[in-house]
Amino acid sequence: MEYESVRHEFPPVWDGSSEILILGSFPSVKSREEGFFYGHPRNRFWDVMAAVTGRPKPVTIKEKKTLLLSSHIAVWDVIGSCQIQGSSDSSIRDVTANDISGILSRAPVRKILANGKTAAKLYERYIFPDVRIPIIPLPSTSPANAAWTLEKLIRRYRDEITCLQDMKRE
């Protein structure tokens, strides 16, 4: 498979009340075709978010944005452009990172989570030196991560997301 130079073509989802920022690595081919995050039908991200927030699984982009924003969750990707083969994170090279400082300066983000090891590694290399906020690596919701069942993913993401929401109630 050939390398392709690709730019991230859709904006982050966030608003002035976003407290959790979930960063992926770079959109898959399916996500790029759909023009929105986690567009592969077998990616479990939206199942996990629905379970963690106690809401129905969103189907449309509008429903997905509403679920995130009403739960004070922002979503974006570490990479703004790169060379990649298909959707393979392991093939990523020639990275230009997204600038997350705009989100961090205008939203009360208290926790940054990585959807997968690659996102965490790329964040540490390209973004952390500028923002100095640690990232918490979570297992990837990709269908390629078969070692993690949906139930295990939900438990792990719930641990990080509800922990912050519980702190707000105290």
Poorly predicted tracts of residues = 166-170
Apparent shape: globular
Helix proportion of residues, in percent?
25-40%
Strand order of the largest sheet: 3-2-6-7
Distance between the termini: 52 Å
Q: Please identify the structural class as seen in this structure.
A: alpha/beta
Overall strand count: 7
Describe the model.
A hairpin with an 8-residue loop joins strand 4 and strand 5. Helix content is 38%, strand content 20%. Helix 2 (45-53) packs across helix 7. The longest helix has 20 residues, at 150-169. It has a four-stranded parallel beta sheet with strand order 3-2-6-7, with helices on both faces. A three-stranded antiparallel beta sheet has the order 1-4-5, covered by helices on one side. The chain is an alpha/beta fold and 170 residues long.
